[in-house]
Design goal:
The chain is of the alpha/beta class. The chain has helices at about 60-65, 90-95, 110-115, 130-140, 160-170, 190-205, 215-220, 245-255, 310-315, 340-345, 355, 365-370, 370-375, 380-395, 410-420, 440-455, 465-475, 495-505; strands spanning about 20-30, 30-45, 45-50, 75-80, 80-85, 95-100, 120-125, 125, 175-180, 210, 225-230, 235-240, 275-280, 290-295, 295-300, 325-330, 330-335, 345-350, 430, 460-465, 475-480, 485-490. The N and C termini lie far apart (about 60 Å).
Length: about 525
């Protein structure tokens, strides 16, 4: 491949014309093929979805297009000319910008300083701070964003606002192609809608957007065409309108999926109450009364900040309840530490697996034994013997048990977190955003595990921001709002019912105590 001089900006493509075309792309790392003969083309003014399981090659392809990696085979054409970007800055200067999942912003600098970092406009040999702020304001106005101060410190912004700053930074390069890697992974529902609006404004201006997400609803909501990768190879590219969710999942995982959300395992029976809260509260939640039985999955829905995570953390003793009564298997308990909760038979799969769930520099085996070693030291030897079987049953893909867990895919990391708790033999399993940031195949594996836990007589409580997940997996749905439990809905309730309760847009009935059946 030969470098193309990019000093002279090419003539923009017409509406719908191909802006970027990659063909026959191949890439190997340490002799292991990661991409083989992959092709993709992006058109002006379209959102092109790129999907596949973790390890399918999506990130590698994005990094090749961004100039982070150079392909071993194949060609890339941009604006009709063959290019070979040897550095990300070269791609950005040409108008091909990638917004990665991990932000590259400097929190102590202003929005304008981040947008023009390394390219600060100058006047009389000095940085033109006023001009830089004005140009940033113009870029924000162009997106219809009035609530971000160009002179404000980036570290004071929300995750969604920082995402917008990354997009504005891309536009400052006169971007014609913007690649987005899991842009909504840490956003709430209303922040996702804001991102939707910005993406649509970008495409209306003729920008081509390459959109990578594990959230299939977003893919169908936004994308005009969808490319599927599996095991580093191209499976298909089709119009989104010609695909169904079931067909897309089948192409991604390579097998037919009878039900995206599996029903209860045959023979599952709702048993006695495992967890009972009566008028429980602390500094975050108040007056919560609920019951979760053996053999059922109870979903907890609500807007971000409604108290969902704080509720399960209260049950787990992270922020112990200071009022009300909590019972486990009929016995009153007071839990004010996580260690006490583990000893009482509880497990908490946290929302942020990297920061809270794993020791990334330690091995798969050591991560699996983390809790047992800390709380049940006398059971470590037995747990060490059980660990390989548990990891195998979860289908954890790792070269060896002494491999550092940071080198695993997101889905496999989540499975290691699950294994860490399963070896403790819990009676109650609390899931906080159990499938955030993992691929479809791993999601289905987690769903099946949840159903098996319920079949084994455990009570499962699940917090999720994804309404289809809450509705598809729950035997009952509890809705939080402003730190209070405001409604209980049956299995299969509609999204509008859950949202109505979560937002308070209609009157809701008083929550009642565990009338749902596990075997719906």
């Amino acid at each position: 491949m030969t470098d193309t001089a990019l000093a002279d900006a090419p003539v923009p493509a017409g509406p719908g014309d191909v802006v970027l075309r990659a063909h026959g792309i191949g890439k190997s790392f340490f002799g292991v093929p990661v991409l083989q003969d992959v092709a993709i083309e992006l058109r002006r003014g379209e959102v092109h979805g790129l999907v596949g399981e973790n390890g399918a090659g999506k990130s590698t392809l994005m990094k090749i297009l961004a100039g982070v990696h150079q392909p071993d085979a194949g060609t890339v054409e941009y604006e009709g000319e063959r290019v070979s970007f040897s550095h990300p800055r070269q791609a950005m200067d040409a108008g091909l910008v990638t917004v990665f999942q991990e932000f590259t912003l400097l929190p102590e600098r202003s929005v304008a300083q981040n947008v023009f970092l390394g390219r600060e406009p100058r006047r009389g040999g000095l940085v033109d701070k006023r001009g830089m702020v004005a140009r940033t304001r113009a870029l924000l106005d162009d997106l219809g964003v009035s609530f971000i101060d160009p002179a404000g410190r980036v570290g004071s912004l929300t995750v969604a606002e920082q995402q917008i700053v990354e997009i504005v930074k891309a536009l400052s390069f006169d971007a014609r192609v913007i690649s987005m890697d899991e842009p909504t992974a840490a956003l709430s529902d209303h922040e996702v809608e804001l991102l939707y609006a910005i993406v649509r404004k970008l495409t209306a201006r003729g920008v081509a957007v390459l959109y990578v997400s594990h959230r299939l609803k977003e893919i169908f909501d936004l994308c005009d065409r969808i490319t599927v990768l599996k095991d580093g190879m191209l499976v298909s590219t089709d119009r989104a309108a010609d695909l169904t969710t079931g067909e897309l999942v089948r192409r991604m995982v390579g097998r037919p999926i009878q039900s995206y959300f599996p029903g209860p395992v045959a023979g599952t029976v709702r048993g006695d109450a495992r967890v009972e809260l009566e008028a429980c509260g602390n500094e975050f939640v108040d007056g919560v009364t609920l019951v979760a039985h053996a053999g059922e999955i109870v979903g907890i829905a609500g807007l971000q900040g409604s108290g969902r995570t704080e509720l399960v953390e209260g049950i787990f003793g992270v922020h112990g309840f200071t009022r009300g009564t909590m019972r486990l298997d009929g016995r009153p308990v007071r839990l004010h530490t996580a260690r006490a909760a583990v000893r009482a038979g509880l497990a908490l799969i946290t929302e942020d697996r990297k920061a809270q769930g794993l020791a990334l520099s330690q091995s798969v085996r050591d991560n699996t034994l983390l809790v047992v070693r800390s709380v049940f030291a006398g059971r470590t030897r037995a747990a060490r013997r059980e660990a390989p079987g548990i990891l195998s049953s979860l289908e954890v893909t790792a070269g060896r048990l002494d491999q550092e867990v940071r080198y695993l895919s997101g889905g496999n990391q989540q499975k290691v977190v699950l294994a860490k708790w399963l070896v403790t033999g819990p009676h109650v399993v609390l899931f906080d955003e159990p499938t955030r940031g993992i691929d479809v195949g791993a999601k289905i594996a987690v769903y099946q595990l949840m159903r098996q836990l319920a079949a084994d007589g455990k009570a499962v409580l699940m917090v999720s921001s994804e309404l289809p997940e809450v509705i598809g997996m729950s035997d009952r749905i509890l809705v939080m709002r402003d730190g209070e439990l405001v409604a209980e809905l049956p299995a299969g309730a509609g999204e509008h019912e859950v949202l109505a309760a979560a937002t308070g847009s209609v009157a809701v009935t008083e929550p009642h105590r565990g009338t749902g059946e596990a075997g719906r």
